[in-house]
User: Which sequence fits this backbone?
């Protein structure tokens, strides 16, 4: 079983989107700890992209149709609420749901989000997963076009979602118009 790094996650996601595999098949042999380590690693990658940037750089957009780094990160944080709520539902934990959670592409995007907020959101989701995950619970719940997902399925979805937006942030940082420090 290959390590869950960006390249592997990307390959797995491509198989899911081409209809060659289901999320649950792909993540079956991975433990929740492996998924959480990959999640924390992907978030560290996003934090590295933000490290040392000033406000003009974080809020830069080359055109009106492109999200800034701040908007990308705020979308990641806001949309993570879907996975957070799924973890609560799957575990029957008595915690409040995050509401409202954006349910549209780019939902929750806003300027002014800090790297500290991304780290806090990462810590919150990891803490919830570690506190509520029970490998004996086999419950799945329906999630958009991805079908029924388990606890690990939702964690993998978050990994794929984050990776997509890390690529978006990398592309923005490489823009020839990106402000110099």
Assistant:
């Amino acid at each position: 079983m290959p390590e869950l790094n960006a390249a592997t996650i990307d390959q797995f996601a491509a198989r899911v989107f081409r209809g060659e595999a289901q999320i649950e098949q792909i993540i079956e042999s991975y433990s929740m700890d492996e998924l959480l380590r990959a999640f924390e690693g992907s978030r560290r990658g996003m934090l590295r992209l933000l490290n040392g940037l000033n406000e003009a750089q974080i809020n830069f957009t080359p055109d009106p149709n492109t999200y800034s780094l701040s908007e990308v990160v705020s979308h990641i944080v806001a949309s993570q609420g879907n996975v957070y709520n799924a973890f609560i539902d799957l575990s029957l934990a008595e915690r409040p749901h995050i509401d409202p959670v954006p349910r549209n592409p780019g939902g929750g995007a806003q300027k002014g989000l800090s790297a500290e907020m991304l780290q806090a959101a990462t810590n919150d989701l990891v803490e919830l997963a570690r506190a509520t995950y029970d490998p004996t619970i086999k419950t799945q719940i329906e999630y958009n076009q991805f079908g029924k997902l388990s606890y690990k399925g939702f964690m993998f979805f978050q990994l794929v979602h984050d990776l997509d937006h890390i690529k978006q942030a990398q592309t923005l940082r490489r823009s020839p118009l990106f402000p110099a420090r």
Remarks:
- Strands lie at 141-142, 148-149.
- The chain has seven helices and two strands.
